[in-house]
């Protein structure tokens, strides 16, 4: 009773409850307290090192005392600060609330920081291990920027993910000086970081789709992508010039009428002229319709777990944490992409094939964009 550690002052070992148990019914009424059961469970299972979060540091003397008093195999308890990431919560209690109250779609929702959720989103074991090694183990409470985890994912996927072309917000482009019935196969590099990845054939035809954001009818000064009268490069294909903008009755742009320079096949001009922008595209005749889910931060504040006591952490749920795009187009080679496969959509980011995919109708989850904020933060 004189111990400076309150946990050692006549600790309770068991409690008696005269109530039915969800599993054993009325068969048992005596239940061991956590401090008494913890060490014995570790001992029975022959645990060598029992790894706990910092709140169990004051309980370790009692953990050791019970094991020594019982004279059984004695594991070693080690405490360390739990891993906390910005813009999410790591507490199992809070994660359970997110699932049970419908804020997310199950434990494998790609917005969840669970291994199942990370896997479905496209995070690789190698990226997670590299992140954990970099963070290390310590006893001081800290919150690690989510950008750091994303950095290690980019590093890993940059080396292994095949490059493909996909258009998420399509704008129809008709090439007036291209034959109606001609289809060419363009050589495309699978991964410039991996010389052994080889190349693939991508079909090119008279009608293609480009990203709607890659065109502006009245562009500002530093907009270098496609505009009326401007020439850009189509990745692996030709130089393209916009000649006419077609609009519907509401004034919305529905189509561009363009021409190519046939001498620039492959992406370079024989006369050495340069263009300031290269656009990705897909052939409308061969494109595969796809659904793309763009995931963002689950919360609107960096540390929702330590928010004001007057506000629940769910008050900071990001209402725009997922955006579902249903009118996307991808290369024909992705029609039957394997669930779990990860690709880099050129100029857009890294995407993983979701289990919700159907034959000929793939679904992709954005794992991470191409922009590496954490690497920039470290340099600054």
What is the CATH level 1 assignment of the domain at 166-280?
Mainly Beta
N→C terminal distance: 54 Å
How many helices? 7
User: Which segments are poorly predicted (pLDDT under 50) over 5 or more consecutive residues?
Assistant: none
CATH architecture label name of the domain at 166-280: Beta Barrel
What is the CATH superfamily classification of the domain at 166-280?
Ribosomal Protein L25, Chain P
Largest sheet: 7 strands, mixed
Number of strands: 20
Query: How helix-rich are the residues, as a percent range?
Result: 10-25%
Order of helices and strands: EEHEHEHHHHEEEEEEEEEEEEEEEEH
Q: What percent strand?
A: 25-35%
Question: Mean of residue pLDDT?
Answer: 94
Task: Label the overall shape.
Answer: elongated
* CATH topology category name of the domain at 166-280: Ribosomal Protein L25, Chain P
Sheet with most strands: strand arrangement: 5-18-19-20-16-17-6
Cα radius of gyration in angstroms? 28 Å
Structural class: alpha/beta
3D structure, described in words:
This protein is of the alpha/beta class and 380 residues long. Among the domains are: 6-80, Rossmann fold, CATH 3.40.50; 92-160, Orthogonal Bundle (Glutamyl-tRNA Synthetase, domain 2); 166-280, Ribosomal Protein L25, Chain P (Beta Barrel). The protein has seven helices and 20 strands. The strands form five sheets. The protein has a seven-stranded mixed β-sheet with strand order 5-18-19-20-16-17-6. A seven-stranded mixed β-sheet has the order 14-11-12-13-7-10-15, with no helix packed on it. The longest helix has 15 residues, at 146-160. It is elongated, with a radius of gyration of 28 Å. The two termini are 54 Å apart. The model has no long low-confidence stretch (mean pLDDT 94).
